[in-house]
Design goal:
Number of strands: 2
Radius of gyration: 21 Å
Order of helices and strands: HHHHHHHHHHEHHHEHH
Largest sheet: 2 strands, parallel
Number of helices: 15
Oligomer: single chain
Length: 365
């Protein structure tokens, strides 16, 4: 889909940045007991769901309820607790159990690697092709600015496998598989990264698929399948929320040249154009880790996520005044456009001599 080129003058960008800075300063100054109470309630609920779910898996008639509870607990741990805590959203509380730089979550990806590949690489270089490794996760073609090769004919298959195995796809993120495939680096160069991934993945596999099933004795198959299904629930849900926040129709990617020397206001501008929100109710926002407000998260990744719904209307109004598209829509509609993009980008460009739309602009100039 052809997108209209939108830009801001330096003066507009500075004014836009000042308005968004003012929102952040106001919210950060207001943080207090209700925010601390909120995250502690969510952690308490997540732990209760996990304990209750695992206990019910020992009783086959309650398998469905136990699996659902365990799956929801894993979603909460991944989305609303782990992701947000590791962004430092609650560091101001000075509680060592939820300090962003030390928190470890219940998933295959080592937290230290996530803090680099996501918190730094992705949030600094959002949607910059060649710098933001979240564009395609090293295996997918998710932008017309990614050069096509026959490998990408498998785009739909790779996307499906990434969805059902998402925690392992995220775990391999720091491995930079696209650079290994291109011959820029070797597997040996990533020996320490691989070792950390192996240690964390082994721990998760032993916990969910060996230790808990063995404790169940004759009910081991029910516990094993419950853990497998709960992990699948978490993987599919996380994939859908994250991909719908970054790749539906209307989101944009950028070249390195386009973002050189950008001001604070233009950085905000890029975050808005490269993100999309999902509409829904309060429970939906909680289960998404409030990444349903992906625009606000990319603007203010260190603001406690439950505050995003309070400021989303104000951010949207500011974007409207500056003529900046504010992309939002329901989950299924946004996901439908993501799937369409995955299939479309599997195919070679119509004009193989001019690989991307931006290449064609440069040729015309």
């Amino acid at each position: 889909m052809t997108q209209t080129k939108i830009t801001l003058t330096p003066e507009q960008a500075d004014a836009f940045g000042r308005e968004l800075d003012a929102i952040k300063e106001r919210v950060m100054a207001d943080l207090g007991q209700r925010d601390a109470d909120y995250i502690r309630r969510v952690i308490k609920a997540q732990r209760a769901l996990e304990v209750g779910g695992r206990a019910l898996l020992y009783f086959p008639p309650a398998w469905l309820a136990g699996t659902a509870m365990l799956g929801i607990s894993k979603i909460l741990d991944n989305m609303e607790i782990g992701h947000n805590i590791m962004h430092g959203q609650y560091d101001w509380m000075r509680d060592p159990t939820i300090r962003g730089g030390e928190f470890e979550w219940d998933t295959a990806c080592p937290a230290d690697q996530w803090r680099h590949s996501h918190n730094y690489m992705h949030h600094t270089h959002t949607n910059i092709v060649g710098m933001d490794r979240d564009i395609g996760y090293g295996i997918l073609r998710m932008s017309e600015d990614q050069r096509w090769s026959p490998y990408f004919l498998g785009n739909p298959l790779y996307a499906f496998l990434l969805m059902v195995l998402f925690q392992y796809g995220v775990a391999l993120h720091e491995l930079e598989t696209e650079r290994i495939r291109a011959g820029e680096i070797s597997v040996a160069d990533k020996r320490e990264v691989l070792q950390a991934i192996w240690q964390k993945t082994r721990k998760q596999v032993l916990k969910d698929y060996v230790a808990f099933p063995l404790l169940a004795g004759p009910f081991a198959p029910f516990v094993f399948s419950g853990n497998l299904t709960a992990n699948l629930m978490r993987n599919v849900w996380s994939y859908m929320i994250i991909f719908c926040g970054h790749f539906p129709d209307g989101t944009q990617e950028f070249t390195v040249e386009e973002t050189q020397g950008e001001s604070r206001g233009m950085w905000y501008f890029r975050q808005v154009l490269g993100s999309a929100n999902l509409t829904g109710g309060k429970l939906f926002h909680i289960l998404s880790g409030h990444l349903s407000h992906q625009i606000e998260h990319h603007l203010f990744p260190d603001i406690p996520a439950q505050r995003y719904s309070e400021i989303a209307g104000e951010v949207e109004e500011i974007c409207r005044r500056y003529g900046i598209p504010y992309n939002k829509g329901p989950l299924l509609r946004q996901f439908g456009t993501v799937v369409r993009k995955i299939v479309k980008l599997a195919l070679p460009p119509k004009d193989r001599a001019e690989t991307t739309p931006k290449d064609r602009e440069r040729v015309a100039a």
